[in-house]
Amino acid sequence: MATQHTSAAPRTPALSRPYPMAKPGYGKRSMPDQPVPHAEDFALLPARERYIAGFVDHLPDGASMDVKSLAKQLPLYGQQAVGSALKALSVAGHLRRVRCLVGEGDQVRWVFRTFWSRTARDNEWWGSHLADEGREPAPSAVAPPPWVPAEEEPEASPATPAVPRQRMAEPGPAPDAPSPAYLALARLGRTEPRLVLSAADCAVLEARAAEWLDRGVDTDYLTRALTARLPAQVDSPVGLLRRRLHDKIPPHVPPAPAPSVPGEPVHRTLPECTRCGAPGRPEALPDGLCRACHRPDPTEPVAAPLAGLAASDVRARAGHVRELLRAR
Question: What is the pTM of this model?
Answer without folding.
Answer: 0.45
